[in-house]
Structure formats: structure tokens, C-alpha cells
Design a protein that fits this description.
The protein is an alpha+beta fold. The chain has three helices and twelve strands. It has one domain: outer membrane lipoprotein receptor (LolB), chain A (Clam).
């Protein structure tokens, strides 16, 4: 479950660079075009990879865990993130800002960008920027590469949390395909058992989600 929260937070980190100078990173999370791609995220918490479906304001990322495939949905239009288990047919909803705070203060970041040069990433032309994002007790320093459509294809840098912990981070997209995304991929499926944890404070979120996981896994075993 912690892996899911890490990926949810990293979906925010991965899009931090799209904000203009002085704006809050969470206000400009998503690219203005729809696409699908393969993603990878590496930090001192591990290496994650899988598929991503993106539409403006909405995003889904799937990944593998020891108990089966799971997915994270981000819905800026509803200010909520969902952690889903397709095999267990359950989901947990929690606030975007709570997830960002859990990642170490990402909920208050403002961004400064400086263009470096044009480069190629995964076969696509991209503009490379130096990115410095700070605020809310956290900080990101590194470089980010954006396509002409505003998709962040790659980012490498360090993330400093509220507690002063510094970790190297890297995220990339490959096999990017522009085009409409099925709306059903970007909402919790009907018939899933769900819990709403949006009222839970950031400092209590991980414990609450772990408790929800135990209950919902038990529920899925009972149902099946």
C-alpha cells in the first residue's frame, strides 16, 4: 500500500516542472493533451514502472505489487486521488493535498524554470529546463524535459522533504501516444467497494490507508 502512496505522490512530483515561475505546482499538474505511455519512477524508495493514461485534469497509473496489480488515479477536477485494486475490486480515496504533504511538503511548492537547450528523449524532441521548486517545507532541484505538447518526458533531481531528508529521484515516459483516453479508465469502476479518506489528516493518512487495505482485502476474500 505504501508503494501506491509513493506513486501517487510521485505523479505530482513528475508534473511539478509544468508550473510557471511563482505558481503553485499542484495548480498545473497536467499536460493539456491526452496520451498513453509507459512510465518509470526511481528513488531511494524503489523502482516502479507501468502504464499511464492521461487526460487534462485526470490521470491513471498502473503498477505491480506482491499482491497483484494496482492503480492510482488523480482527479484534479474532484481534488481527490484513488488507490485501486482491480483484483480485489476495492478503492481508497484521499485528498490530493494530503498525498502531496505525505510526500514531504509537495503541497506548497512554487516553481522557477530556466530553459537550457533542445534535446531528444525517447525519440522525441524536448526542451530541457533547470527546475527549482520550493515551499511548504519541501524542495525539488533538478532538470526536466518537455515535449512541444507540454508533456513532461523526463525529470532528474533531488527531493528534499520537510524533515530534511534528501533523495535522488528520476522519472521518464516512453512510447508516448497522443490521442483520446477512455473515460472509464479515469474513474473508480462501478461495483467496487470503496472508502473515502479525504477527511484524514496527512500525518494520519498512511496508517489509515493501511487499515483500509487490511479490511478491504478481508472483504474481497469473503466475497470470493
Amino acid at each position: 500500500m505504501r508503494k501506491g502512496l509513493v506513486i501517487a505522490a510521485w505523479m505530482m512530483v513528475a508534473l511539478v516542472g509544468s508550473a510557471r515561475a511563482g505558481e503553485e505546482a499542484l495548480d498545473l499538474l497536467d499536460a493539456p493533451v491526452s496520451y498513453t505511455a509507459h512510465y518509470s519512477v526511481s528513488s531511494d524508495k524503489g523502482h516502479f514502472e507501468g502504464s499511464v493514461w492521461h487526460a487534462p485534469g485526470r490521470e491513471r497509473r498502473e503498477f505491480a505489487t506482491a499482491i497483484g496489480g494496482q492503480a492510482v488515479l488523480l482527479r484534479r477536477d474532484k481534488d481527490v486521488a484513488y488507490l485501486l485494486s482491480p483484483s480485489g475490486k476495492w478503492y481508497v480515496g484521499f485528498g490530493l493535498h494530503a498525498a502531496a504533504a505525505l510526500a514531504g511538503g509537495l503541497d506548497g511548492l512554487t516553481v522557477e524554470r530556466r530553459k537550457i537547450r533542445e534535446e531528444s528523449v525517447a525519440g522525441q524532441r524536448a526542451t530541457r529546463y533547470h527546475v527549482a521548486a520550493s515551499g511548504g517545507g519541501g524542495r525539488f532541484d533538478g532538470d526536466a524535459w518537455f515535449s512541444k505538447d507540454g508533456i513532461m518526458l523526463k525529470a532528474i533531481g533531488t527531493l528534499t522533504g520537510r524533515n530534511g531528508h534528501v533523495e535522488p529521484v528520476e522519472t521518464t515516459l516512453s512510447d508516448v501516444r497522443l490521442g483520446p483516453v477512455d473515460a472509464a479508465m479515469l474513474s473508480p469502476p462501478a461495483g467496487y467497494f470503496g472508502l473515502d479518506l479525504r477527511s484524514v489528516k496527512p500525518e494520519n493518512l498512511q496508517q489509515a490507508v493501511e487499515g483500509a487495505k487490511a479490511m478491504m482485502n478481508l472483504n474481497s476474500v469473503t466475497v470470493h
